Amino acid sequence: MDIHIFWDKRAPTGLALPVQRRMQQILDTPMKLCANPVRISGYSSTNQYYDAHIVLSALQLYKKRHAMTEPILLVLGDDLCTRSGAHLFGISREAAGVSVVSGTRLANEFWGLPPDDKLLIERIGREGLHEIGHLLGLTHCSNASCIMANPLCFDDLDAKHSWFCHACTKKHMRLHPFIYLHQIPEQGDAECADPILTQKHSDPLIL
């Protein structure tokens, strides 16, 4: 199974290939990277963000029109929000196999910190894999170090490692035995709890 990564023209420049490579190191399955071919609507020029649900619907329609069956991850450079105005790191629609991540609030510059491309690559990769994890059937995890942990604030993002915990790996292997996950080393896995559903799968990562 291939996973498609659509990199929008306003997404962070020069980071598409490093993010793809990093994600493939963690989730050992082919990932096809290309410029975003989807016409995205739902942008509010007043509030300067995209309506995440309209973006997901556009991806879903594109997938249907092109008879695609593989998961899609779109990486945007603009902010994402719910219709209630809650800001997002990313969101997925499991039934449709589509997801989107915004690089805006993953960048140090947004928080008044010095730019750090290496850190931004890790964050986009982790949050992209978090949403793909949902598309592959994984739920939110209680292990704060696991990619599938649900960050409730910005600091929670960097508490996560670029690994799937032992429990999430076992669940994934039951669902997809031919896709290898890079999991937390055994010594870091002693306190790993079983993954728990803290919110609906498609709930956003909210600051």
Pick out its properties.
5 helices, 207 residues, disordered C terminus, alpha/beta, five-stranded mixed sheet, Collagenase (Catalytic Domain), 29% helix
How far apart, in Å, are the first and last alpha carbons? 32 Å
Strand order of the largest sheet: 3-1-6-10-9
| CATH homologous group name of one domain | Collagenase (Catalytic Domain)
CATH topology (fold) name of one domain: Collagenase (Catalytic Domain)
Structure class: alpha/beta
Low-confidence region ranges = 186-207
| Total of DSSP H or I helical runs spanning 4+ residues | 5
Query: Strand fraction band?
Result: 15-25%
What CATH architecture of one domain do you see?
A: 3-Layer(aba) Sandwich
Give the tally of β-strands: 11
Q: Give the rounded overall mean pLDDT.
A: 85
Quaternary structure state of the chains depicted: single chain
Order of helices and strands: EHEEEEHEEEEEHHHE
Compute the CA-based radius of gyration.
16 Å
**Shape by Cα distribution:** globular
What does this structure look like?
By secondary structure, the protein is of the alpha/beta class. The chain has a domain at 3-139: Collagenase (Catalytic Domain) (3-Layer(aba) Sandwich), CATH 3.40.390. Helix content is 29%, strand content 18%. It contains 5 helices and 11 strands. It has helices at 16-26, 52-65, 117-135, 154-159, 166-175; strands spanning 3-7, 27-28, 31-35, 43-44, 49-51, 72-76, 79-81, 87-88, 90-93, 98-102, 180-181. A 5-stranded mixed β-sheet has the order 3-1-6-10-9, sandwiched between helices. Strand 4 (43-44) and strand 5 form a beta hairpin. Helix 1 (16-26) crosses helix 3. The protein is globular, with a radius of gyration of 16 Å. The N and C termini lie far apart (32 Å). Residues 186-207 have low confidence and may be disordered.
